[in-house]
Amino acid sequence: MKILGLTGWSGAGKTTLMVRLIPELVSRGLKVSTMKHAHHAFDVDKPGKDSHRHREAGATEVLVSSEHRWALMHEHRGEPEPSSVELMRHMTPVDLLLIEGFKRDPHDKLEIYRPALGKPLLSTGDPSFVAVLSDAPVPETQLPLINLNDIAAIADFIQHHWQLYPRQR
Fold first, then answer.
1. C-beta separation of 10 from 114 below 8 A
2. Which helix (H) or strand (E) holds 6?
3. CB atoms < 10 A from the CB of 96, how many?
4. Number of domains in the chain
5. Is the Cα torsion angle 21, 26, 32, 33 positive or negative in sign?
6. Of 77, 103, 109, 134, which has the fewest Cβ atoms less than 10 A away?
7. For residue 141, what is the domain's CATH number?
């Protein structure tokens, strides 16, 4: 399974890019999964639901399943947050795992960079970055620069970088 991160400062458009890029890659015959890091407390469960009650009662993991999907919720219960590598072990292998966030982890990454945000490049001096995606010129980088709005060009770069070509069906 190939792994590629999409990272950038808050407000750079990581999620917007992700939801535009996934269908482009899937239309090219690739199986794609995603993993996202959240910097804040979040919950995929709802108070009052059986699964929520199980977690509130102290269960470390709760798996909910139906004919359409399943979800596994894991409570850290005071344990440290796992790394992206540890979390990847729970993913079913696909052609490409796109990771949103985890900007300090060692997997290859594309930086989504908008100079208008007034933030520095994350990719400077970090060899895990393989390209910069921007809506403006970025003279400070030596990495390949791809127009943030050219989804086909970004998908081309990803396929070329990882030699990802769909299997014959």
1. no
2. strand 2-7
3. 20
4. 1
5. positive
6. 77
7. 3.40.50.300
